[in-house]
UniProtKB/TrEMBL annotation:
The keyword Signal applies. Residues 146-253 form the Tectonic-1-3 N-terminal domain. Part of the tectonic-like complex (also named B9 complex). This is Tectonic-2 isoform X4. InterPro entries: TCTN1-3, TCTN1-3_dom, TCTN1-3_N.
Amino acid sequence: MRLPPPLPLLGGLLLLQGVWRPLRGDLVFIPPVIRMSGPAVSASLVGGTENVTVSLALLQDEMGLSPVPYCGVQDNETGDWSLTVTPNVNSLEVTVRLKRSLQSCFSNETDYFSESPCVVQTLVVSAARNSSCLAHLLIQVEIYANSSLAHNASENVTVIPNQVYQPLGPCPCNLTAGACDVRCCCDQECSSNLTALFRDSCFPGVFGGDVNPPFDQLCSVQTAHGVPDWFPFLCVQLDNSPFLGLFYLGSVSSGQSASPEVYLHADLKDFSDFGYKQGDPVMTAEKEYFTIPQVSLAGRCLRNAPVAFLQNFDVQCVTELDTYQEQDGAANVKIKNGVVGGILTPKVIYEEATDLDKFITNTETLLSRGPAPRNVNVEEHYIFRWNNNTISEINVRIIRAEVNAQQKGIMTQKFTVKFLSYNSGNEKESSGNPGYQLGKPVRALSTNQMSNATTLHLWQSAGRGLCTSATFKPVLFGENALSGCLLEVAMNENCAQLRENAIELLDSLIPATHVAMRGNSDYNDLSDGWLEIIRADAPDTGADSPNSSTNGVCLDVPAQLSVRILFSDAGTVEGITQQEILGVETRFSSVNWLFQCGLTCEDGAGFFPLSASVQFIKIPAQLPRPRTRFQINFTEYDCNRNEVCWPQLLYPLTQDYQGEPYPQCVAKGFLLLTFFVLAVVLSDPCTRTRKARNSAPI
């Protein structure tokens, strides 16, 4: 049983019912077609989502006829499927889930690995306004039997057995819960029929195998064929046995529910009375961390994240307005300044938000005013003035908005923290001293008087992802990045004008003419380490040839801007490596644009994607050391070509060994050499030689 091809199904539906009309306006599903292999999938509906009704329908090919999805009726339940619509910023997130359990697919354990799919269906999600279909999402469902879906594991309580009698890791190669791991013969979830397929190729090692093959320098590894018994002279001994019964006793640990809060240790170590160091948490007078909402590596907004000394950040947090609770204001917090008994009170300035729609979206209209309105902080900007290892001043600017107490919607908050020197004025912030610091903006300037650019940019799209509404974010040193946006075009678009618009948008990312080699290059002195940007392959925006005048087709349209930045190490300052930029090159890439039509090409709006990428390439500070004549002629001791090589004879004493610090390895090597010399001196041949010399007549 296979999935029917989608194009004949859609063609028959369109011809018979005539309701799948071409895309009207800007309403579109992203992506428009999904191949579903799990219990849930999601897509985004972007465009004008106001007053849009979303419905779900099941397409069934019975007797050659397919039912037509009826637009205009909110339908969230269709047989075994449910539809959930979640509003986001200028878009709707549509999620389709399978309601029934897949347990019915499995009659015995061999069905877990059946070659036939368990669920094969075709779904269509329709978006309509005033009973008029505007966009469709086609979902091709093909779900295979999987034991990980059939067995639900409880994560509330984890019982650890007593390792004195039962090892904690009895089967190290069992990596997948509820499924059979190939070549893992100790996996209890493998049936006898499956184990018979790979019984002769099981992983070797303790308790059923080690999935990581040992490296050549292990003492337990047998010597390779053709290698003398004295090689290697020294080897490495590891003990990574999973049997923990000799060291640990089992216990029961209760699982904890996930929470967006940051749980800090009860016994906080406060060394702020002796001055702050970079990265130390800023402390309050109550010996608690001074916290400001920040974004974690997983993209989660942490409300109680501590502020680190001399570490700037600029983050945005999105939260539901009806569940948001305002925290204590910064005006009531007293912060330690880094001196014994020194306390600082932040200077707070309040401003009112002028454009509420910029911060709060997807709001609902309230019929009654209800309780008294409340104030919410939409932006908080902190400036810390530092002097050596102390904080001299704290200035806070808070932008707040007045909303109804029962107002619902999605609120976007912005939090910035910046550390400035106590004697700094309005000069431009440096990106290092003297070399660039990782994550700092790449400094740039423009010799053109019409531009005052100070850095390179990338797009930061929001909402519908259009280039006209996209904002800019700086290019950060050492961080490769890729961004893009959508340019609205028409079917009868003038190709020369399209090329000019694309080049203008791409050039707006690099408005500068020079970049700084170092992080502290002087903006007022062009000779202080400023490099001119190399602009290669400038595209031609001339008129089209007479043979390329077809509507909806444009040749050689600039679509991508590639920025390559070469950098290298330029020495050290107090043991810290300093890096500088050696050159910057920009290059355009062109594509042939074709207007995408539905069944018929109407004079509607289309999208032309533009993208920009930044790549940092590190150049070695000096050329690699040339090979000696001995290395060129005598290749029998080359480690890359032979089993025996001199650099690996004393492997634990070389730089390649990373198991212990190198000075500790050298110390152990000298100690071993001392024992060896002492053993030679006290050995029987040396004693007899010494006695023979003493007894010899003079």
